[in-house]
């Protein structure tokens, strides 16, 4: 029998409701290139839930495309991005942003997050003009690549600073669902829309087969955006494929419910492991658990479960990473804890 | 009631078998980024059907991505593409190839097709080195943007010439299904693989929700290809989404059957219209019909059907374009012909 | 003894006055990167002579750099350039503009020149948005690559049309000197500045060792221009090198005098050849002469002079091209005519 | 009277011999685009002095162009550069390398220099393929941006490691003259050519008006290099301008003599300041002196000399930077020391 996987949050296909929506709408004839009724409906739901009735919204297939298109749309060739050195665009997208011509100014984050101080220092260190690229856009992720989240105060501070210094604020929301469903979170989708110039909401990790929604609340950035979507290869002939799925996610509370389930499964794992006396390498804010376990136990767990051994701690202990998702089976969580116990 | 659409071949979702395959496999846990069992299975089917057991195959979401990645992978910055001035990369992809740095040398095709003579003339006119970009890759489409197809002799001639002159041959197969299912066709998938260096097979227009398969038969072009897939934003976390669909298309003869249905519906429309005494603006080789009809008739047809008025012929006649697909309902074809008659 | 060359207008170094200015200023200590007193002085002269006291001016080493920087500064990634298919950026710069990401929409010119009709047709043919790149900048050269020149009426018409349709007008002035010194010319430097958004004045072909002056009269395009100069490698540490030379060219009437000499030498050749009964393949507007001569005569001339055989006319006649410059020796012109005669 | 400047090593024009060579050759007629007799002669001298008779050599106007062209020629789009975070391409070229599509992987150097350990760690940290760009080229400068130099052992170690790991080694020689003339130096030009794949020799800072010579000793990198020179705007019509100057520099020992003079003037300043009891902030290896002086003295010196105040040390002391060059007047060095004394 296959071992149950806690490797990542994209091991399964789509949430059944999402797949059923694809099934139910499959044979209607629709306009191509995102002008179908489902995409339009999805955009209406998103405008409502983000609280910006005038925002431009574009649905694309994946996160790297969302980043390429958003950043490429916003910058002139000499303008640079400020990003954490752990940022997804910095270390997990094969130089995709540089490939469209822009410099990344990397900074050391604080628990995966940028702060006003960090950004200000980057500005100070990149001011020898015109010999240095001009910092123009701040890239942040929420949740971050480390699973941490921004508070409303933290995001507001960054937002005000950016406005004051002529910087655009762009938020990568590959795991925005997990962030908003975090027990620590005090941000709503309307705050995200208000405090950033442009951001995207990840669907791939919250129950769709694929798809992310780029939301442009700063109207001055919306002009000709669709040219960039097309030029970078992201304008699907059957735009309905993403439209149907996002429409299903945001018609009701499904997006938030699925993200909450993932976080709850992580919390359950985290609590169970702690209660058995094992330490965590980091607090469990979203859907990732970093636990420190003895090697012998790890070896035993690997016989029934898949997960990453994150790093060695001592000669007989290591950190393992467990990732949960909308699809995580509570019985498997219990089985895992049961195996830890015995 | 909605008018039935003959506007394009991507108005519906996926063929039911394809969608059912997504449903049936939905909750299995799979490795991400195209290393799932369905993608691997699809690649095996494709290697078999293209007759190149060693070929590298990559599944991506759309045609523009397939073109960007394939061309970007093959060329150095100073190398240029020879393409018909009607080519998709020339006039329908928002400068996507130029956006990754390459010049398109455009030539006037013969019925949408390139010939050895045309390519040779392009070489002659672009030889003032190093002041001119170096022609290095020939881009062709089959079926072409005009719905015409290459014969085996035509493709073989181009292929030999390219080998002789150090040019790479790349075939855009957005409508390769329609071409191979054409009554005129004498090319098999194995010929395409043998005669080109790299080509792609379109799924979007033959029954998938999305997806195209890039096949690299020239092994020297396969090195590090996956970096390009990732860098251009085309490496889906849930690669299974395309893998499942292509696996279903090529497990059996489905791909060819669907393409044949589309062509047959077009042939039926074409024949019916001709038999009623109307002329065609072009022979019907694949799934597009160009018919010359009186304006009054066109106005009447538009009340029940959607199609493009392609161009004015005289003050009271115009060419209309009818596109059929795997999903075209034979009853609607008959209803259309019935309305032409009355 | 070396054969005298009529091959091009950059066979010699700099005009002696220009070289002497380099000598005279050589050992003063100056600020780097174009902020030296000579560059500033040159810019003052140019602002005066172009009649735009507020224009931004940048001195760069060569024409391709001037084109890359100017176009790259003006366009967003999805915006395209309309250019004659004979344009220098189209056929003599190795795809330099595509290499920075922009599509060239090429059109067939009329005697090397664009017209309102030609530009309007390009707009009509490139309007299927967002599937087509957006035409945004019109590129023209004066003199053109064929040696022809724009009249004031012609340039005014294009300028008005561009303003009306939201297009930027960019003029490549590699041979602007020759154009302004043409007997046909009714444009002044102030007209060029007024009618275009951005243009450059070539020094390389009018007596400098190297160097072209980019003049931005449309202030909205001047922001951050120097970043582009630096990013594309054109910000010389010793900016004085070009500053001194342009200062010398524009301190007095030298630029215009040198261009006039080149044209006069061409006129003399042209007239002499005509008077001996030979035909011209094109009227001599600037510093290029296209003469139709018998092959036997051509062979005789080649023993003492260098020039290009441009194209075959009949089995015993061909067009030759003679180019003159500020450095052309009148005695050699006379010797050439003498050899034609005998 | 103007204050004497120790601000940088490009305040003056060209060394008189270099300028005289331009004068002496000015009116000969030459082939354009670097195929003149002076450029060919310069390349011969350089092939001799670098000990690689088959190397390809290209003369370009400036350092950023040399870096853009060299790196762009060597890499495919997904390949990245490893560079010190203080590297010129990282912090002083406005994102020029990213602008042509390549990621810079930045590392913390040791005294401005890379080591095998540093490079190896960068490889380890950038191995998550294909999600990370592929490290392919190592960029170093000699002298470094901090004025330090590589020993033969240091460079040999890096070179061997690069060969072993499939990395190309590229050396930016903007101040290669200063490095080779350093008292610490044990590298010869032939070593540089042997140990790197491609490097360039700076002329701008050693007595030319402008110009750098790119030397490609690894023949596999030389194919089509001139296309890149042209495409990036660096192919001067009058290539002779740089050819004459490099020919003059390398005909005799002039290049090395000029570099030595600059270093000697720095040594004299350094020694004089030390002997008066002031400390240096860094040892003086090449032509830069970093001295720690009291603020009152600095204020007094600034009345007669120009230099940069590099950083504050205490409330009444600061580091100043003095840069010398081939043009530095020994009398001014003595006057400076005299003013320090009194």
Summarize the structure.
The structure is a homotetramer of 342-residue chains. The first copy, chain A, is α/β, with parallel strands linked by helices.
Give the SSE layout:
The structure is a homotetramer of 342-residue chains.
Chain A: E1 4-5, H1 16-25, H2 37-50, E2 56-60, H3 63-74, E3 79-84, H4 88-91, H5 96-99, E4 104-107, H6 116-125, E5 134-141, H7 152-165, E6 168-172, H8 176-180, H9 189-195, E7 198-202, E8 212-216, H10 225-231, H11 240-251, H12 254-275, E9 279-280, E10 288-294, H13 295-302, E11 305-306, E12 308-314, E13 317-323, H14 330-341
Helix pairs in contact in A: 1-11, 2-11, 12-14
Cofactor (chains A, B, C, D): pyridoxal 5'-phosphate
Keywords (chains A, B, C, D): Pyridoxal phosphate
Organism (chains A, B, C, D): Oidiodendron maius (strain Zn)
Structure, described:
The structure is a homotetramer of 342-residue chains. The first copy, chain A, is α/β, with parallel strands linked by helices and 342 residues long. Chain A has 2 domains: 4-10 and 255-341, Aspartate Aminotransferase, domain 1 (Alpha-Beta Complex); 16-252, 3-Layer(aba) Sandwich (Aspartate Aminotransferase, domain 2). Chain A has 14 helices and 13 strands. A 7-stranded mixed sheet of chain A has the order 2-8-7-6-5-3-4, sandwiched between helices. In chain A, helix 7 (152-165) links the parallel strand 5 (134-141) and strand 6 (168-172). In chain A, helix 2 crosses helix 11 (240-251) and helix 12 packs parallel to helix 14. The longest helix of chain A has 22 residues, at 254-275. The first copy, chain A, starts with a strand and ends with a helix. At the A-B interface, strand 1, helix 1, helix 3 and helix 10 of A face strand 1, helix 1, helix 3 and helix 10 of B.
